[in-house]
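Here is the promised in-class demo. Please do not try to memorize the tokens; focus on the logic of going from shape to residues.
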């Protein structure tokens, strides 16, 4: 009997020791958890701050690129930035948004409204023998008809100009009308002006496809479509178009207005009474 009691006592004593060890282990683990918890919270806080900072930096980068794009486009349209070959890559989103997001069309409408206001004040004298010599000149590419579908695949001018691919695009005859300029064209025709369409496209290879493309898009009733022939091959855009305008004036026409998307459309000699620049931040012809 005494032996059993001693065994029980020893077992209880062993259990007490084991419980004591377990209690110490639990306390130790709780202490580590309490020490680690603030550190973990601090790490989580730092990570959250870094993530937020990263988002802010991304937003700042986007805003910086947008502001840069606005400034760069202004420099282009005011002809302060000349001779550039490609659109800066950081302007890609800005130019894409400008050309396809509605602002480009809005700007065109404002410019055309100003052109038509000016044209409405021109009195065509039907009593004189040369009343039908009142002329306007409109550029073709990215004035009358648009190459935006082509430039979408070229990141709106961020990629270098690819002459063979561009010629393939032109030869499809699928350039859509610029509807705002089509409105201008039809109004000028209705008012009685003789509208000349002047392009740097080569007559030898692109005359028919250009004429068909223009007609299919509603440009019907113009006085003459003038393309670059071999006589003007290799000449700069300014020299070539100046020569054509001089020839038009020598025929007795009065050029009341001249509209183009490139500054080279509006420089040189025999510019007419007024020139009107429409936007084009996708490429520059020098």
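The designed amino acids, position by position:
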């Amino acid at each position: 009997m005494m032996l059993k009691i001693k065994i029980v006592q020893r077992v209880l004593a062993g259990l007490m020791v084991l419980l004591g060890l377990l209690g110490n282990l639990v306390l130790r683990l709780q202490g580590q958890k309490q020490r680690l918890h603030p550190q973990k919270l601090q790490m989580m806080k730092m990570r959250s701050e870094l993530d937020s900072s990263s988002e802010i930096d991304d937003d700042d980068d986007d805003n910086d690129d947008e502001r840069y794009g606005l400034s760069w486009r202004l420099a282009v349209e005011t002809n302060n930035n000349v001779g550039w070959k490609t659109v800066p890559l950081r302007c890609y989103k800005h130019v894409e948004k400008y050309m396809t997001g509605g602002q480009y069309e809005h700007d065109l409408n404002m410019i055309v409204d100003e052109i038509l206001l000016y044209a409405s004040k021109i009195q065509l004298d039907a009593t004189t023998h040369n009343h039908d010599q009142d002329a306007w000149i409109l550029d073709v590419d990215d004035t009358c008809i648009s190459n935006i579908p082509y430039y979408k695949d070229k990141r709106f001018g961020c990629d270098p100009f690819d002459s063979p691919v561009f010629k393939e695009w032109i030869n499809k005859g699928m350039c859509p009308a610029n509807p705002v300029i089509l409105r201008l064209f039809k109004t000028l025709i209705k008012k009685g002006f003789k509208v000349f369409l002047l392009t740097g496209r080569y007559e030898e290879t692109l005359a028919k496809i250009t004429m068909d493309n223009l007609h299919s898009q509603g440009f019907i009733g113009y006085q003459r479509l003038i393309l670059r022939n071999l006589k003007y091959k290799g000449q700069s855009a300014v020299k070539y178009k100046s020569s054509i305008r001089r020839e038009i004036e020598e025929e007795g026409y009065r050029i009341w207005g001249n509209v183009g998307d490139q500054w080279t459309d509006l420089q040189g000699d025999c510019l007419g009474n007024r020139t009107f620049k429409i936007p084009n931040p996708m490429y520059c012809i020098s």
